[in-house]
Design goal:
The chain is α/β, with parallel strands linked by helices. The chain folds into three domains: 83 residues, Four Helix Bundle (Hemerythrin (Met), subunit A); 192 residues, Rossmann fold (3-Layer(aba) Sandwich), CATH 3.40.50; 124 residues, Signal recognition particle, SRP54 subunit, M-domain (434 Repressor (Amino-terminal Domain)), CATH 1.10.260.30. Helix content is 57%, strand content 9%. Strands 3-2-4-1-5-6-7-8 form an eight-stranded mixed beta sheet, sandwiched between helices. Helix 6 runs parallel beside helix 7 and helix 17 packs across helix 19. The longest helix is centred in the last third of the chain and has 22 residues. The radius of gyration is 26 Å and the shape is flat.
């Protein structure tokens, strides 16, 4: 999502690198470029004004002007200020009572229904027992959609009479008291804000007295999302936001603006279409990604959550013993595909990304490797040295690839085997990125 902003800021930092010392003039030039980059990223003008004033004041301080590493000091100032405008800290859901009501509100198309299911799945994994409540009686198939999503994650959905949202939430509250920890309510949205919509949401809020009233915001909407958020907050006194579609190609203005403008925290972000693609919002990690520093902590958490620990440990032991076969290689490819190579690359620091790193090509290569290994016999996977030219022709034909592709895979595997032998002898190999 932040590629364009990241690229522009990177150019700014390069412009001040190697200067030895910073002066008021080149700081002013750099700050001006940062300002333009933020405005082009659709960041709210009030946020940009506050951000730039704060950065300039700190950047003109004696510590930075006399620093031997002015570029690093300047980047640190930018990072710290980005964290501040995005809320400065991680905000958990504040849940009390049983069940604790969480009401999701927002415009139609923001991803509210899917977010309700994602949040239920997130809480379930955390040891809670959630129930979903279908209070959107207006959008065609909204209730059926929530029921289907609930089935996929193993969470019960209360639908009531499917006609009266206030009656549905009141009955759900009574039925959920002794059985569930959290009650997540999916309310109706509209294509635009209207008085009828707001009054209905107010009545639902009065019935439930929710612990959390979260506005689901589509990151693709830009400043329109911030403007509509103001109206929702004025009427409902929101407790926070969930920003969806953070994996899209939006410019990033919403995530950098909404918390500062409204004074309410972003609590979660949607980072994909899958039902487990909901993450807690960490301002410091997002700031690091914007500045090209990557998000290694989130990458580690994603690996721990999505990869099969037992299989990974088994593979690691084989690797260290130099017993790594093509079957193990295939398992690694499947694990990488499961995580999504685009997600992995997105979280890497920029210095580990090469200019020719093409995600589409990488995905294609993974599929090719998988197809080639799948076309081998069990014996060939365990003993690749028996693969002669006739076997290569058979494998390439069966996988829809070429003999050159098979040779490329076998060469990569041989290089990996050599590396394993160095590990076994206690020698750390040189790895070229």
């Amino acid at each position: 999502m932040f590629e364009s902003l990241q690229e522009k800021l990177s150019r700014v930092f390069k412009s001040i690198s190697g200067k030895g010392r910073l002066t008021e003039r080149n700081i002013s030039d750099a700050v001006r470029q940062v300002k333009l980059s933020l405005l082009e990223a659709d960041v709210n003008y009030k946020v940009v004004k506050h951000f730039i004033n704060s950065v300039k004041e700190k950047a003109l301080g004696e510590e930075v002007l006399k620093s031997f590493t002015p570029e690093q000091h300047f980047i640190k100032i930018i990072r710290d200020e980005l964290v501040k405008v995005m809320g400065n800290r991680v905000e958990d859901l504040k849940l009390s009572g049983r069940p604790a009501p969480v009401v999701l509100v927002g415009l139609q198309g923001s991803g509210k229904t899917t977010t309700a299911a994602k949040l239920a799945g997130y809480l379930k994994k955390g040891g809670k027992k959630p129930v979903l409540v279908a209070a959107d009686v207006y959008r065609p198939a909204a209730i059926d959609q929530l029921v289907k999503l609930g089935d996929q994650i193993g969470v019960e959905v209360y639908v009531g009479d499917r006609r009266n949202p206030e009656k549905i939430v009141a009955e759900a509250m009574n039925k959920a008291k002794d059985e569930f920890d959290v009650m997540i309510v999916d309310t109706a949205g509209r294509l635009h804000i209207d008085e009828e919509m707001m009054q209905e949401l107010l009545r639902i809020k009065e019935i439930l007295q929710p612990d959390e009233t979260l506005l689901v915001v589509d990151a693709m909407m830009g400043q329109d999302a911030v403007n509509s958020a103001k109206v929702f907050d004025d009427t409902l006194d929101l407790t926070g936001f969930v920003v969806t579609k953070l994996d899209g190609d939006a410019r990033g203005g919403v995530i950098l603006s909404i918390s500062y403008v409204l004074g309410k925290p972003v609590k979660f972000v949607g980072v994909g279409e899958k039902l487990d693609a909901l993450e807690k919002f960490y301002p410091d990690r997002i700031a690091s990604r914007i500045l090209g520093m990557g998000d290694v902590l989130s990458l580690i958490e994603k690996m721990e959550k999505e990869l099969d620990r037992e299989k990974m440990e088994k593979t690691a032991k084989k690797f260290l013993k130099a017993e790594f076969t093509l079957e193990d290689f295939l398992e690694q490819v499947k694990q990488i595909k499961k995580m999504g190579i685009d997600k992995i690359v997105e979280m890497l620091p920029s210095q580990l990304k090469t200019p020719d790193m093409d995600l589409a090509t990488s995905e294609k290569e993974l599929k090719k490797i998988e197809a080639v290994i799948n076309s081998m016999t069990s014996e060939e996977r365990r003993k690749p040295w028996i693969i002669d030219y006739s076997r290569k022709k058979r494998i390439s034909k069966g996988s829809g690839t070429t003999v050159q592709d098979v040779n490329k895979l076998l060469k990569s595997y041989d290089e990996m085997k050599k590396m394993m032998k160095r590990f076994k002898k206690g020698k750390m190999p040189f790895i070229k990125f």
